[in-house]
Amino acid sequence: MSEATTFNATIDVRPIPPRERHPLIFGTFDQLGAGEALLLINDHDPKPLFYQFQAEANGQFTWDYLENGPDVWRVRIGKAAQADTH
What is the value of pTM for the model shown? Predict the structure, then answer.
C-alpha cells in the first residue's frame, strides 16, 4: 500500500488505557463513510481486534498491515464500499 494513502482518522492507542481502546476504534470506524479508512497505531499486533471486527463487522471492513513491529504496528482499517448504511 502506498504511503500516499490518506486516512480519515488516525488512532494511536499506545497512550490510551486498554479498556478504552476497542470502543474508541469501533466508534471511529462507525463514523467512516464507505471507502474511507482509519490508521491504527499500536505497540503490539492487534490480532484480537481483527477477530472482533470479523465477529461484529464481517464483510464490512478491510484490514491491511502497513508495519508489522517489532515495536510499532500500523494497520489500515477501511470501511468496505458497500458497507455505508447512511
Answer: 0.88
